[in-house]
Design brief:
InterPro entries: LysM. This is LysM domain-containing protein. Residues 53-106 form the LysM domain. By secondary structure, this protein is mainly alpha-helical. It folds into 2 domains: 1-46; 51-114, LysM domain (Membrane-bound Lytic Murein Transglycosylase D, Chain A, Roll), CATH 3.10.350. It contains 5 helices and 2 strands, in the order ααβααβα. It has helices spanning 2-22, 28-45, 63-71, 79-89, 110-113, and strands at residues 52-56, 103-107. The longest helix has 21 residues, at 2-22. The termini are far apart. The mean pLDDT is 82.
Length: 114
Amino acid sequence: MKRLFGLVIIALILFIIYYDLSKGTLPITIETTTAAQVENTEQENVTVEMDYFEKEVVSGDTVLSIIESQLDSAIPVSIQEVINDFSSLNKGISVEKIQIGKTYKFPNYANLHE
């Protein structure tokens, strides 16, 4: 009787492990993706009106280095805010995707720095 009970418990545990690994019990990734898509859609609908300057990118430039050279000091906002502002000014272009020789709009934080 003890053997039968032990086999049933082992079979139940193996079934639970199989079910959890194959189908899962917490679909967190689906909900997170949906929430992220809704947030991105809301951000695209907002009209951005902020101070900016245009500059042509040369070899070795990064978004942060260009903004710091414009300010002649450290950036007064978070890096994530700089990334979001740059992306919204340039129709969703990622900061990693800037190309040498092209002109982009960069957020101007000079009035925040004073």
